[in-house]
Amino acid sequence: MVYVWLMMEMDAVDYLATVFFDIPDAPFDLHHDLARHLWDESRHSQFGYRQLPKLGVDLMTVEHSLDLYNILVQMPPHERYAMMTMEFEAGSFPTKATVMDRIRELNDFEADTLLAFDRNDEQNHVRYGHRWLPEIMTLCGEKRPVEEFVKATQARFVEFAALYGNKTPHALSPERRLTGNKIRTLVGLS
Ligand SMILES: [Fe+2]
Ligand SMILES: [Fe+2]
User: Fold this and answer.
1) Which of 61, 88, 83, 76 lies closest to 181 in space, CA to CA?
2) How far is the CA of 85 from the centre of ligand 2 (A)?
């Protein structure tokens, strides 16, 4: 399930790429850090799709959720970037810590290492957020203080999720797609 979770980070590549594309006038240093951020997310996804076949998962049965992408692309680039860095990434560390503690009990060096890379990268992404969100806000004509803007954006996201969430259908039938129960069967739990 951890590797499915990592593989799903492909959606971060999808929506971060749109921020990149939507601010063509950004300074080179900003684009440079966004490019690094994109590369990190594609590596996190790769951690998943590289490991899953080793555990007997057919990648053609793993669906990619387009839900978050579909909500975020309705928002302007500075709001998208704020949600990504100040909400999803900044808020991911407590859950990651719990998962990493449990994974450590499995004595799986590779899993520990991949998750440590992921956490390290995510800490950098939050740092990028603090560095670049004010610049992206300026590029988009946003004049409110950062904190006020982030709070307002979090509230707007809830509205947008209600409007645009749950609109992307499954790509595979229930028989075909990988489910939680099928993972349990694969690892011999049911
Ligand atoms: Fe990531
Ligand atoms: Fe990230």
Assistant:
1) 61
2) 7
Specify the residue for token string 């409110």: 144
The full length of the chain comes to 190
Residues measured by CB to lie within 5 Å of ligand 1, the ion: 9, 41, 44
Contacts by 71-74, CB closer than 8 A, 24 or more apart: 71/157, 71/160, 71/161, 71/164, 71/165, 72/15, 72/18, 73/15, 73/18, 74/160, 74/163, 74/164
pTM beyond 0.90, yes or no = yes
Residue 44 CA, ligand 1 centroid: distance in Å: 5
The tens digit of pLDDT for each residue in 3-47 reads 999 999 999 999 999 999 999 999 999 999 999 999 999 999 999
